[in-house]
């Protein structure tokens, strides 16, 4: 089939890129280690939050608490890993939801000319608002639960995917193999899914990686402001928010969740850049 290469076909290019750019391989390994630690160590009982302990309150890193104890005497490492599940889960959920919604909107806008103008104006209007301001407004409307935060952030980042899908669809719909499929009487939905969507998965995958990182950062910002996930559910953002009042006496309460956010987001950004270089034919040749 004519068209751009699929992500699977670009696999060797990505492996070559990781050999040529060790930073991509290193940051991918760091991110996978963070994910594995957050989901495996607490499940295997290697780490635990523990109960409240006045005696251990605000104690620094030690053999008993490797990353210290919080204001209630709970193990910071255990909380950090459990909070990571929520933060990573929200980021992944937002990436999936916004990609799915953006694909639908972008395909419809790019394939049906009558709907292109109103949908494009809607996308432009949504992108005119700063991400955090729009997210704050939506969370205030929906409420501060984990599902509502994911929904609000998905609404915020859907236009990013929709614009990419629309632009790619406008080009591909005019290509000869799409015209041939129409002449053969192929259903419009089949053309959209088989001939169009299949050939634009590379930029969608790259943008979804960036949205994963953006969503984690936005969730941390919302939780830091106290309008995100329920404070009873630990996230890296809520840990930073809880620890800011003890910054003078126990700076590690902010340091470690802040490092977790920074490493995860930076790793995803670098991996996303690597994916873009590997999946874009022009950049792949230059690399």
TrEMBL record:
It is found in: Cell membrane. SUPFAM superfamilies: MetI-like (SSF161098). Gene3D superfamilies: MetI-like. The chain crosses the membrane at residues 24-47, 88-112, 132-157, 204-229, 249-272. It is a multi-pass membrane protein. Pfam families: BPD_transp_1. Keywords: Cell membrane, Membrane, Peptide transport, Protein transport, Transmembrane, Transmembrane helix, Transport. It comes from the Bacteria. Residues 88-272 form the ABC transmembrane type-1 domain. Its main location: membrane. Belongs to the binding-protein-dependent transport system permease family. This is ABC transporter permease. It comes from Paracoccus broussonetiae. The lineage of its organism: Bacteria, Pseudomonadati, Pseudomonadota, Alphaproteobacteria, Rhodobacterales.
